[in-house]
Input
Amino acid sequence: MTHTPIISTGEKDTRSGFGAGLLELGQQYADVVALCADLTGSLKMDAFEKAFPDRFFQCGISEANMIGVAAGLAITGKVAFAGTFANFATGRVYDQIRQSVAYSHKNVKICASHAGLTLGEDGATHQILEDVGLMRMLPGMTVVVPCDYNQTRLATKAIYDIDGPAYLRFGRPKWPIFTPAEDPGFIVGKAQILQPGTDITFVANGHMVWQCVLAAQQLAQEGISVELINLHTVKPVDADAILTSAAKTRAVLTADEHQIHGGLADLVGQLLSRHLPTPLEAVAVQDSFGESGTPDELLAKYGLAPANIVAAARKLLARKG
Amino acid sequence: MKSSYTLAEMQQVCAQVRRDIVRMVYEAQSGHPGGSLGCVEYFIALYYDLLQHDPDQFTMEGKGQDLFFLSNGHISPVWYSVLARRGYFPVEELATFRRLNTRLQGHPTTHDGLPGIRVATGSLGQGFSVAIGAALGKKLNHDRQLVYVLLGDGECQEGQIWEAAMFAAHKQVDNLVATVDLNYKQIDGDTRDVLNTHSLADKFRAFGWDVIEQLHGNDLQEVMETLRAARSRTGNGKPIIIMLHTAMGKGVDFMEGTHDWHGKAPNAEQFARAMEQLPQTLADY
Output
């Protein structure tokens, strides 16, 4: 099977994609408001703040209050984008999100940067690896984990159109850009088949999609054909895309920058075991906290490097027989 | 729906609301009668005198209307009774309180579309922030109507209250009138024994709020005057908070002034005794 090879056109941090998308939303829609808890520069929300000072709410280091204020703004018809580090945007304010936002069905978008190990040197206190699990357990919460700068920009704009709460996860480091700036193929709730294949299915999101691209290139040299699914929307999940691919390849590997618990391993594993039992391997953090280090060092140490994906794929293919 | 009421009429509603509260909690054999009974005058003053609202045309956004938030959501019986009596939904629905498939959940929620409710509360500390956000939204919308919010004094032990207090003063949210139900009681006992908040008036003043003390929170006339005074002080750069001294369990002698009735239903004998003290003034639901 032939396909256009996936190539990187440059590097940029996904948080900058969020900042760019937010600014565009502000320009386009008067009902967009933004809130931040003393991390405006880190979240790249400064352009929005500068352009729309009346619609920007600096909340200080008070995340619980920020979530409540966002819910209140939503009551008066605003679409509230509340941003901080993923750790403080989820675990720290879980009950506020659960009650004031999710259960109350408020139009609040939780925008979470610096997620996962690739936050790097700040260490495990800030490297949340449980946030996707926490958010996808909440009824009615849309959960989106875009894979690069372009897609984060598009995802930021796309969640504006969702009526209700959404969680958007992105990161700190510069990361390869490999999806188009304008991408009609990016639709919230619809998995993207970035590369068709026949031997094994990779289901990944966030930074791990690029890791899978590199692993698939290596496997291709060994004659192994990988079907690569970018599952940018974790909830609602595009079950059809996964099941259709699994029916074809009969081997599924998940990869996400998250604990093995609560992330894609659980999600895809449950889906397959209920509908189409299929051998599964998971590339994820194996029930441990992170530590200080560079993103690449951490991805390697915690088993999230392309080499780990290749090894897991070989193991899976052996099981498949 | 009638829109102005005499003091005598409002006092009649107060009496019936007290009766509703005890009946609802008794029939459900669960709920929070103590704080509900203590806040009856506040709710009647708010919904029958102060609020600029339209019970027949409830919308989530409440554009051009005053908004009310109950941050201490556990005193839902008083809120439900007053909302029903004021015409937000049929009085008969009070009989469904806390029962399966009801819109009158144990703690207030928007989930089932009950008119009058704009956010789920009950996890303490959260409704205060939401009210502040709504007040900021009103300003952005150039909507000159006000936002009111009620907190419990025990609730002020939550850290989020102080995040919100700092924020509202900093942002000069002066279209907001908050009230603390100061009854010095919480589930485990007297607030001064459980976790002493000391002077909440001093604390809110130190945070930059305009603080009003009302020592007679169960005197309807005084509560109305205090709320009107608070309304007249809006628009001056500071959020406003009323320290409303009330008696938990007010109106039922064995419930009054004790934390025992924070969240407990009476038995048949206690219920009969309470009903003797709370005669019907309007038709029962």
